[in-house]
Amino acid sequence: MFLSAVPLFFKHRLLTISLLLLVAVGARQARAQAGSPSPTVRVSGRVSAAENKQPIPGATVQVRRTRQGVAAGAEGEFFIIVLPTDTVVFRAIGYKPHLLALSGTTLSQLVVQVKLVRDSVQLGEVRVTADRPDRAAINRALRNIKRPAPPVVKIPKRAPKPKPLFAVDSTAPKPEAPTISGSNVDWLYDQFSRQGKERRKVDELKARDAAEKARQKRAEYNKAFRDNRGYE
Length: 232
Description:
It is built from five helices and seven strands. Among the domains are: about 1-35; about 40-115, Carboxypeptidase-like, regulatory domain (Immunoglobulin-like, Sandwich), CATH 2.60.40; about 185-225. A hairpin with a 6-residue loop joins strand 5 and strand 6. Helix 4 crosses helix 5 (about 195-225). It is an alpha+beta fold. The radius of gyration is 72 Å and the shape is rod-shaped. The strands form two sheets. A four-stranded antiparallel β-sheet has the order 3-2-5-6, with no helix packed on it. The protein has helices at about 1-5, 10-35, 135-145, 185-190, 195-225; strands at about 40-50, 60-65, 70, 75-80, 85-90, 100, 110-115.
């Protein structure tokens, strides 16, 4: 009723002022929201094993969105600051990973007790062999080894036979010629005949004369040494 009585000019002025006020209020609210820091959640607690409730030191507490995190202490304790929409991942060697989704919580501080379940991984069959090569590899290695050449054995030369100081006559002595040649009849004739006896007697006289001459010659030679007493 009031707006109908107002002239058209004033109606346009009122609408314009209302729009300006709405824009100013919206801009102020946007500036206020932009200037204020985003809400965070302080998550702390302890990481332990599910089967024996023993702490797991060194467990990884990581933000899934940023992949940044911290490591649990010696008693499994941890502390991390995240956003209300983040998801925290807990990992440890030998355990299955555990996810903690905050799901836009309005809490500013959250204390949790995380229990990790051991990961039972079934290993395949592992065949352990001794660190020893097989027979074929050993034979192949032996064939490839260069065998050393056999040592050269020098055979010493034999010493020459000693030479005699004086010349030695190695010829065999000549057999004496038989004094009696012929058959047994000639030998009997020489033994019992007169001519044979005379010939043997002449030979004996010659041998006796030769022995006497040799004796006299020896005596004559030794006589010189007998007279010289100084050499005895």
